[in-house]
Design goal:
The chain is mainly alpha-helical. The chain has a domain of about 70 residues: lambda repressor-like DNA-binding domains (434 Repressor (Amino-terminal Domain), Orthogonal Bundle). The protein has seven helices and two strands; from the N terminus they run E-E-H-H-H-H-H-H-H. The chain has a two-stranded antiparallel ribbon. A hairpin with a 4-residue loop joins strand 1 and strand 2. Helix 5 packs across helix 6 and helix 5 crosses helix 7. The two termini are about 25 Å apart.
Amino acid sequence: MTADPLVLEPLAETADTVTISRAHYERLLEMLEDIDDMQFLSSYSHAQMAEDAAAGVSGDGVVRLMDGEAPVRVFRNERGLSAEQLAAAAGLAVADLLAIEAGGTLEDSARDHLAAALSVTPDMLTPWSQA
């Protein structure tokens, strides 16, 4: 985190409450999100890091996965494939692939074909929020 440290200037105080500006409140929320991300990364196992590195996931890709983006889309982008190219390689219709990337159901057979086309294990295509 490169932002300046937060210096709170209360607008009003009582025995039970402190009122701060909207800007300070939003900055506090950002800091809490950063803390959540840091806690996740500190729990991110070395085995998972090795697996992701072997699968060719960049640091940006890991952040996108952490943010809940569809793994199929992240891996497709990491491989430099268009939706049409991946759909063809996996034997899927482009519309079906785009529906999967938008959060649609990923059937086991489609997962296996996509995993093979992306050179990953099928379980790596499970959204992190569901893992």
